[in-house]
Design a protein that fits this description.
This protein is of the alpha/beta class and about 160 residues long. The protein has 4 helices and 9 strands, in the order βββαβαβαββββα.
Length: about 160
């Protein structure tokens, strides 16, 4: 199995400028000066991704109070992200990386196991990026359920 290059604490977070669910563009530079939780998920409106997005939504106030902005990234088209946002009342930006170049730069796209088969796809991952655009934490192969609670504990928010 080929390993996609993974990021580690202290690495520069790969810059991006991507379309959002509401038709705007979001760049990492726009978020400079704030801490960012960027999480990569395979597909909007699937059960695991919905659980994860709703956990982030429900934790958003405490994350923001601790100085974190949350951004979700997937290869879905902006129109699908907009439906996801509306359906599940997602209250943070969702960005579209249709060509998967940003996901690849973060090490969140590559070979993974899916029901015992090796497939190419989005590796469910979370990146904590500091105010200067450096990776503080790079968490790969996270679980959809319970991940946000664990992240909050790890960040000392609970």
């Amino acid at each position: 199995m080929t390993e996609t290059a993974r990021l580690s604490a202290g690495d520069d977070a790969p810059e991006f400028s991507l379309p959002t669910d509401n038709g705007d563009r979001l760049t990492l530079k726009d978020l400079r000066g704030r801490k960012v939780v960027l999480y990569a998920y395979p597909a909007a409106m699937t059960p695991g991704c919905t659980t994860q997005a709703c956990d982030f939504r429900d934790s958003l106030a405490s994350l923001q109070a601790a100085g974190y902005e949350v951004v979700g990234i997937s290869p879905d088209k902006p129109a699908k992200l907009a439906k996801f946002r509306e359906r599940d009342a997602i209250t943070f930006p969702l960005v579209s990386d249709e060509d998967k170049s940003v996901l690849t730069a973060y090490g969140a796209f590559g070979e993974k196991k899916n029901y015992g088969k090796t497939v190419m796809g989005v590796i469910r991952s979370t990146f904590v990026i500091d105010e200067d655009g450096k990776i503080e934490r790079a968490l790969y192969n996270v679980k959809a359920t319970g991940h946000v609670a664990k992240l909050r504990r790890d960040l000392g928010i609970d």
